[in-house]
Amino acid sequence: HGAIDAVDVKPFDQDMETILKEKSKPSDWCKSGKIFFERGNFDEARQCFVRGFDNYNECLSIACLYTVKATIARGKSGSKVLTEPIRNSLKKEALEFSLKAADIYKDPPLIKILEAAHNYKLGEKYEIAAELFISLKVYIDAAQCYEICGKWLAAATSWLAADRMKEALNACYLGRLYKE
What we know:
- The chain is an all-alpha fold.
- It has helices at about 15-20, 25-40, 40-50, 55-75, 85-105, 115-120, 125-135, 140-150, 150-160, 165-175.
- α2 runs antiparallel to α3, α3 packs antiparallel against α4 (about 55-75) and α5 (about 85-105) runs antiparallel to α6 (about 115-120).
């Protein structure tokens, strides 16, 4: 368990208990789900969308919940009052939550590629992130990810696609992609 306890899911509040007692039609559940979603209560929103048979918004709620958990864990991992093992555990947890969010964003029904790419980057899956950024023609982010994972030719090519000659030449130099 450990650090997962530091990232809490909000408990049911009075609004959710009232909704659970009153709602019966899927459209009512979806309407309540949207209210919870707008408030940032993603777990409650997800539960409403499940009851409303809205798979798209259920998945979006789950992805947003993982993104929030990753952000909280990442923020807590920087705390100097925590021990190093706890900080490392929180960093690992943040990576895992980012990757879970990325997988949900990438696949149907969401297919939100930019959000997936950013979460893969946060989850330190740089090559996957770079490929998604390339598919969206977001060349600078792709080049940065390729550099982090040591894919120098891909980085140089991405920098060129972004019309950034200086950075492309630097990637060639760093990757020794030149003849002496």
